[in-house]
Request: fold
Amino acid sequence: MFSSFEKLSRPYLFSRIFADFLMVHTSLVAALVASWIRGTHAASESVLFAEAQAAVDQYLHLFLPLSLIFPAAFLLSGIYRDHTGWSLRRRATALLCGLAAGLVVFTSISLALLPASSLGSRSLMIFGALMAITLFSARTGEWALFAGVRKRVARQDHLHSGRPVLVVGGAGYIGSMLVAELLRSGRKVRVLDSLLYGDGALRNVVQDPHLELIVGDCRNLQTAIRAVRGVDSIVHLAAIVGDPACEQDHQVALETNYAATRMLVEVAKGQGVSRFLFASSCSVYGASADLMTETSPTRPISLYGQTKIDSEKALLDACDTSFRPTILRLATVFGLSPRPRFDLVVNLLTAKASVGHPITIFNGDQWRPFIHVSDVVRGFMMALDAPIEQVGGEIFNLGDSKLNYTLTDLASVIGQRFPNATVETTPTTDRRDYRVCFDKIRTRLGFECTKNLAYGVTEIQAAFASRSILDYSSYQYSNQKFLSIAGCPTDQDELDEKVMAAFSEAPKLAASTPVAAAL
Reply:
């Protein structure tokens, strides 16, 4: 327990103890004075003087020495430990336990030693109420103040480091929006992307002087080293995304989603980059009737889900004092971005309704958590801004419990915007079915979604109404269709093939290969 005090400076620790001790005595004096005033309306002058003298004596000879009980109780409850990374509930619980223990012991001893008719015995209830109010008010105010200070300091550290944030996959559906937001926040940004789906998503920001674009494959060792060198932090979004896209070529999916992640981890550690954000997926939960938390069993039922959970394991296995990855398991994303996608269920069904096509619901009783793409970006920004002690080595479900819907519920939301839409239901072999709990990211980072399904449906409807999007079925809007036409990217370099082969193996085998050792 005492090791956590090392993170707190002695002046700060002593100032907290002194402040709490001062609140104890202020509450005691206030309670004694309140009790004394309460009895002045019917007492003679001599009685008032005697009670005042008794109150002073009881304070000096009983309450003053007994007040040392409170620092001891607070110490044992953990109030004076370093709270970085503690949830609000855990902090409040520690505070309540310390206060309750102190009051119980203090009151018990005081009642045992005080005369039955003593003025002091009437003050204990007032003291308890005052102590609870002052301590909770002061401590919660301190938490709010220092939480804001830590976030500002962390953000300023990023801005003043002069080093860019590397976004791997920065030209994609999520990455293009994240890059724009990072630039708006004043950060320098470096993007590594193969531009497999084109460069259109970055056209609005490509001329920004704070943006550096490296066109290359994240599976290429030399390209990865070049991209990582000198960066402040890494956001890894590059992947063959989605079950159908991964089925196009299992080997490419394995290399891009898993082997390249393992390689980037080694390169990041070699370059001294400690902050590494990884985009995982709630699809790792597979199918379950339970409400899934970050500690729930993972049961991926697709290659895509399996590569994500394998990458998570590789990241957590690599975690140490100098490398602190953060894993964000994304809910099912929807909404428009500079690189629109209509192979996502909300976007696809809304697009069909927008052009008068029937809406087909597969297994309508299946649950999915949803999140708008702009809220995904907010989640990554909050994780980047947070102190690394708060998020490093952690897994967070990224979403909001309010956006857990069945697919039938989703059809109902879309139907409210398109009352004439035809809804068809049919069974499917897709067994994914999961509801997800997002309490951890809400309590730890204060994250909540700002956009609901209705917002996403409305913005897609508006895009079709304005004819900014015409044919939702075009291959450019679907990962699987695009890869089926253009083909999956393949390694041309012999070294790249060997590197990917090494990192595609189980970690214990890859660690013994010359390629891994060379990193």
Remarks:
- The chain has two domains: 2-158, 161-514.
- Confidence is low (pLDDT under 50) at residues 1-8, 507-519.
